Amino acid sequence: MIKLNEVLPTKSATVEAIESYWKQRGDSEPRRGYLGGSAIGKECSRELWYSFRFATKPNFDGRLYRLFNRGHREENTFVEELRGIGCEVHEFDADGNQFEVIDCDGHFKGHTDGAALGIPEAPKTWHLLEMKTASNSQFNEIKKEGCEVAKPEHFAQQQVYMRGTGLTRSLYMVVNKDTDELYTERLRYDSKRAQSYIDKASYIIDATTPPEKADTLPKEGERAKYGSPCTYCDAKSLCHGTTETAVAVPDLSCRQCVHATPMSDGKWACKANGDAINVCKDHLFLPGFINFAQPTDSLKNPDGSLAIEFTSDDGTVWQHGPDANAGQYSSHDLMTLPRSLILPGVAKPAPVEGVTGPNLEARYALTLDNVVRVWSGSVEDLLDVFTDHYHVPMSNPNAEQEGDGWSAAEFAPHCCVIVFSGGTKAEIREDGNIHN
């Protein structure tokens, strides 16, 4: 017998609507264009580098956005309580904005929760304010170990903010979301620790290659206690190459390009009007984004644009550049195509073991003169595309070839080959030499 609770919705329509509201509201917020002081204490610099280069995008649901907002609302309660015990509190500047801390030519920023005078433990000393909420287990951990050990990100954040504001003490305030119990801790400014976080930020901002992966670092301290930071990292698939897509970025950005450089005042210099957002046709990924191949050479196309030659881990040689007619794979290609479709880009590739008959891999290499990619997309659309393009239904191929993770079928009357990958992707290449 089916039980009623097995068929009833797990959430009411009202809850669904509220969470949808928060999802839309949260996703519509503009993304932060700087490296944040609240994140600099994270163990993995590589994760921060990917984020700064707009190579990751968190996918929070409405419930999480609402939870974040609860933390913001709690700040008003803290301020009310501090004023209620006689403290002088300033949470906004003269323009009504949070106090901002800026460093690294404007590419590293943070926003404080305010400052207070009259804290009972040291009433004559101005204190930076940092206010947080925590689950019961997190709260008990903070009480037991203190901020620096239990929450190193919060500790780093306060050190950076004290450095930027000139304050030498910080009041760390935490509320237990389950019991409403409060915890406070006064932190002392450590100039060497603060400078180390600024140096870390500067390195991440200026780096043109991804820093070392955190999962290769020694297991000690925070890492030994809580395990690998990779588990819930937004950059995990890109960093470890666990997706079929060649370069798994959510969107193209100039920040990922070899032509872009962070400049002063938080600005960028690049070929696309310096905004580091709207990419131009010459966009090329920094080689560090391509984790299945190594750069082996660079060249200039006839129009002056740059291309980079790569050699994949399996020995495949190919070119990353904007000239599709030269068989180059653009940045858009790499962020949409599976890596198994990144086929050799040399005129005479090594013989393929087990191949009998024509070597389609060599005959239709994209770097051969007049060999071009005329379409790529889903296998589901292939029959319709083929019929529309050649004005006849697809028949049996004249020759076939299989490789590692891909297969190819030649249709000699049309001077073309269809390359399949993973059962879901396909592309059509034509050999204009035969036409001519």
Would you mind describing this structure in some detail?
- It is a single chain.
- The chain has 14 helices and 18 strands.
- It has 436 residues and is an alpha+beta fold.
- The protein folds into 3 domains: 175 residues, Lambda Exonuclease, Chain A (Alpha-Beta Complex), CATH 3.90.320; 82 residues, no CATH class; 94 residues, no CATH class.
- The longest helix is centred in the first third of the chain and has 23 residues.
- About 3% of the residues have low confidence.
Concise summary:
With 436 residues, the chain is α+β, with helices and mostly antiparallel strands.
Task: Jot down its keywords.
five-stranded antiparallel beta sheet, five-stranded mixed beta sheet, 14 helices, Lambda Exonuclease, Chain A, alpha+beta, 436 residues, single chain, elongated, 29% helix
Question: How would you summarize the topology of this molecule?
Answer:
Blueprint: H1 4-7, H2 13-27, E1 35-36, H3 45-52, H4 62-84, E2 88-90, E3 100-103, E4 108-111, E5 115-117, E6 127-134, H5 136-145, H6 147-150, H7 152-165, E7 169-176, E8 182-188, H8 191-206, H9 222-226, H10 236-240, E9 261-262, E10 268-269, E11 293-300, E12 306-312, E13 317-320, H11 331-336, H12 360-363, E14 371-378, H13 382-390, E15 399-402, E16 406-411, E17 416-421, E18 425-431, H14 432-435
Parallel strand pairs: 1-4, 6-7
Antiparallel strand pairs: 2-5, 3-4, 5-6, 7-8, 9-10, 11-12, 12-13, 14-18, 15-16, 16-17, 17-18
Helix pairs in contact: 2-4, 7-8
